[in-house]
Amino acid sequence: VQLEESGGGEVQPGGSLRLSCAASGTIFSTFAMAWYRQAPGKQREFVARIINGGEKNYASAVQGRFTIYRDNDKNIAYLQMNDLKPEDTAVYYCNERNYFGTDFWGNGTLVTVSS
What we know:
7-stranded mixed sheet, 4-stranded antiparallel sheet, mainly beta, globular, 11 strands
């Protein structure tokens, strides 16, 4: 499985961005797709997840501001980020977990929220 993120950039506080994660390879065994982020000097942390069947989970820090969704026909996962805050600044990574519990990661896309 190969994952490629896009859509990062610099935005002012209160702005919006949409991240995309294009998946290729053995995607039929996908259990869930998720987004994680890693801010400078901090550990990677969970942001949002969408499980086959549609269940979604969010970190409390982004609940109500971020939305994860998938286009199954195009094999793309999205993260719509609204009302961005400086503390959202991080490299955002796409993650895919298959039914065997194996994780795959993209190379990340940088999001900078600054005035």
